[in-house]
Amino acid sequence: MNLNKAMILGNLTRDPESRTTPSGQTVTSFSIATNRFFVDQQKQKQQKVEFHNIVAWGRLGEICAQYLKRGQLVFVEGRIETRSWEGTDGIKKFRTEIVAEGMQMGPKVGGGGTHQASPAHEEEPASFNDDEIEVKDIPF
After folding, report:
1. CB 84 within 8 A of CB 92
2. In sequence order, what are the beta bridge partners of 51?
3. Rounded to an integer, what is the distance from CA 31 to the centroid of its chain?
4. Fewest Cβ atoms closer than 10 Å to its Cβ: which of 2, 14, 60, 74?
5. Strand partners, 77
6. Could you tell me which of 36, 30, 101, 27 has the C-alpha nearest to residue 72?
């Protein structure tokens, strides 16, 4: 048995871009940044940001284009796909994406507005102790 499942919880790095294929199907693409906080060998707090390319097709793509905005917290569930093409320079190019199969928007912040903080500069958690996580430290 095989499994190809991706679950990403992060902030949109840009507004979604929507287009229609020649066959009339909607496809929407956007990027999500996820942050990982850790303590290195020198006991210094570190942060690593990963950027994930997301593609949503059909009705899900229409909903993403309509409701998602840059900076907003979003949960995307889908599968990982790598596509390839030949560039104008004749070199074969590759892109790994998450093809969305489901999406949940995060909470709105500040009385109905969306969260506009830069994903790479999010507030770091209050504690780096792996043994102790408090509910008040969870950012959502």
Report:
1. yes
2. 33
3. 5
4. 2
5. 7, 102
6. 30
Residue 132's H or E segment, with its range, is none
Classify residue 90 by burial, with Cβ atoms within 10 Å: 0-12, 13-18, 19+: exposed
Mean pLDDT, 10 residues at a time, over the chain (140 residues)?
96 96 95 94 92 96 95 96 92 94 84 44 43 56
pLDDT at 52: 96
Q: How many CB atoms lie within 10 A of CB 64?
A: 25
For the chain, the first-to-last Cα distance in angstroms comes to: 35
For 11, the 3-state DSSP assignment is strand
Which domains occur in the chain, in start order?
6-38+45-109 (2.40.50.140)
Q: Specify the pTM.
A: 0.71
Residue labelled with tokens 């009385």: 111
